[in-house]
Design brief:
By secondary structure, this protein is of the alpha/beta class. The chain has three domains: 92 residues, NAD(P)-binding Rossmann-like Domain (Rossmann fold, 3-Layer(aba) Sandwich); 201 residues, 3-Layer(aba) Sandwich (UDP-N-acetylmuramoyl-L-alanine:D-glutamate ligase), CATH 3.40.1190; 153 residues, Alpha-Beta Complex (Protein-Tyrosine Phosphatase, Chain A), CATH 3.90.190. 34% of the residues lie in helices and 21% in strands. It has 15 helices and 21 strands. Strands 8-7-9-6-10-11-12-13-14-15 form a ten-stranded mixed sheet, sandwiched between helices. A six-stranded mixed sheet has the order 16-17-21-18-19-20, with helices on both faces. Helix 7 links the parallel strand 11 and strand 12. This is UDP-N-acetylmuramate--L-alanine ligase. It is found in: Cytoplasm. Keywords: ATP-binding, Cell cycle, Cell division, Cell shape, Cell wall biogenesis/degradation, Cytoplasm, Ligase, Nucleotide-binding, Peptidoglycan synthesis. Belongs to the MurCDEF family. Pathway: Cell wall biogenesis; peptidoglycan biosynthesis.
Length: 485
């Protein structure tokens, strides 16, 4: 994988019939859904059938399972992702016919043209913050469009065209594709080293964010507690952008204080220069989510909505898929799933889980003593190699740690990089490297006891293990059943 070459977006009404290779993917399907809702002609293909393909077919898309040149039909525009190989027969045919070929991000950028586009970028928190922006604007009656990397719990969808007003999208920095978006408002949550299989280092990442700043048409909303994002704010001011900040820092335009866990909900207070302090509540845990909420409220305020009603609306946010998502409970143990795949994300989720358990114990002494059992699947050999020490330090916050084999994703197998590269750096008991999936399920169920939380983490297929862990826990609690070993 490498940085994509920026391509300027084309207005939706100029795309003509649009064909997607990999139509069933989360990113592609969301854009296709919005185009269909906008009255555009859409076709597409994917290697495997799925419920997503069938939903798009019911909406009017011409859907194909498998890739073949004839799938293009009378297409005018082809949309591809960086995962599409050069020998894909549909791409080859499009090149032969001289069709317009757009990267996925350029197609996403097309949806922002002519609308109040809101793009959320940053190393962490993009999906959650974009989801929160959407929920707050829905509460305010703005009927926004959105394209999100996960699904909103409240709607069960990852994308919707809205009713012609604002549209909120994720701006992905991982491969530089956010440089194909030109939003009116941009949120930058934080800027850290990541995706070092694409970038040479943090300096190149900052250079790309500088180019992103130039594409923002009006307002930058920046998480000022993060040093990298603070640099983006300074750069925005130097380049004449309107810059608003949020965070716990005293100088933040939207300052949060009084963050307090109440089980899996969180209370906070929001301060601005022009308003009395406003007390808010989130239905999800963690300081990082309070900061994401402050960004969402700042977007609503910048769009001219009532700030107090916006804070009220953040309480409607019930989460997004794979963002501290409850998978079930068995034998008195709650099992949750998280997309956390970077050390900073793991640390944030484990701190949030610990705070929730402590608050349970404070309010109900009989619940005191609950522990955190972390099940982590490293994502990418390169990321595991670069951040092995940092992963170990973050996971050390859990009481029990199970590390799986590396999920290779787009990378070739590297026999020198395994999950043991992480566990070998945590020098204490309660840490296991368990490469087999079934063995991981058994180990998690064996370790957990009533009152604990099992948290599966990673960007790969670890998300599939939660229900199996719940089943194993339930089986272990049944009379006559042996505890999984």
């Amino acid at each position: 994988m490498s940085l994509v070459r920026p391509t300027d977006p084309v207005p939706v009404d100029k795309l003509g019939r649009t064909h997607f290779i990999g139509l069933g993917g989360a990113g592609m399907s969301g854009i296709a859904r919005v185009l269909l809702q906008s009255g555009a002609e859409v076709s597409g293909s994917d290697a495997r059938d799925s419920d997503t393909l069938r939903e798009l077919e019911q909406m009017g898309a011409d859907v194909h399972v498998g890739h073949a040149a004839e799938n293009l039909g009378p297409a005018d525009t082809l949309v591809i992702s960086s995962a599409i190989r050069e020998d894909n027969p549909e791409l080859v045919e499009a090149q032969r016919r001289g069709l317009r070929i757009l990267p996925r991000a350029a197609a996403l950028g097309a949806l922002l043209l002519g609308r109040e586009g809101i793009a959320v970028s940053g190393t962490h928190g993009k999906t959650t913050t974009t989801s929160m922006v959407t929920v707050v604007l829905q509460h305010l009656g703005a009927e926004p469009g959105y394209v999100i990397g996960g699904k909103l719990v409240t709607t069960g969808l990852g994308a919707d065209a809205g009713i012609g007003g604002p549209i909120a999208v994720e701006a992905d920095e991982s491969d530089g594709s956010f440089l194909m978006l030109s939003p009116k408002i941009a949120v930058v949550t934080n800027v850290e080293a990541d995706h070092l299989d694409n970038y040479s280092g943090l300096d190149e990442i900052h250079a790309n964010f500088a180019s992103f700043v130039d594409r923002v048409e009006r307002t930058l909303i920046v998480g000022i507690d993060d040093p990298g994002a603070r640099r983006v704010a300074e750069l925005g001011r130097e380049r004449g952008k309107r810059v608003l900040t949020y965070g716990e820092a005293p100088e933040a335009d939207y300052r949060v204080s009084g963050i307090r866990a109440r089980g899996f909900t969180t209370e906070f207070t929001l301060h601005t220069a022009d308003n009395e302090p406003i007390v808010g509540q989130l239905a999800v845990p963690g300081r990082h989510n309070v900061l994401n909420a402050a960004a969402a409220v700042a977007v609503a305020d910048e769009l001219g909505h009532d700030l107090e009603i916006a804070v009220e609306g953040i309480a409607d946010f019930a989460g997004a898929a794979r963002r501290f998502e409850l998978k079930g409970e068995g034998a008195g143990v709650g099992v949750y799933d998280s997309y956390a795949h970077h050390p900073t994300e793991i640390e944030a989720d484990l701190h949030a889980t610990r705070a929730a358990l402590e608050s349970f114990g404070e309010e109900s002494p009989e619940l005191a003593g609950g522990r955190v059992v972390a099940v982590f699947q490293p994502h990418l050999y390169s990321r595991t190699r670069f951040f092995a020490d940092e992963f170990a330090a973050a996971l050390d916050l859990a009481d029990e740690v199970v590390v799986m084999e590396v999920y290779a994703a787009r990378e070739d197998h590297d026999p020198d990089v395994t999950g043991e590269l992480i566990t070998s750096r945590i020098d204490r008991d309660g840490v296991w490297y368990v490469p087999g999936r079934e063995a991981v399920v058994r180990k998690a169920a064996e370790l957990a006891r009533p009152g604990d939380i099992v948290l599966t983490m990673g960007a790969g297929d670890v998300t599939e293990l939660g229900p199996h862990i719940v089943e194993a826990l339930a089986a272990s609690a049944e009379p006559g059943e042996a505890t999984p070993a």
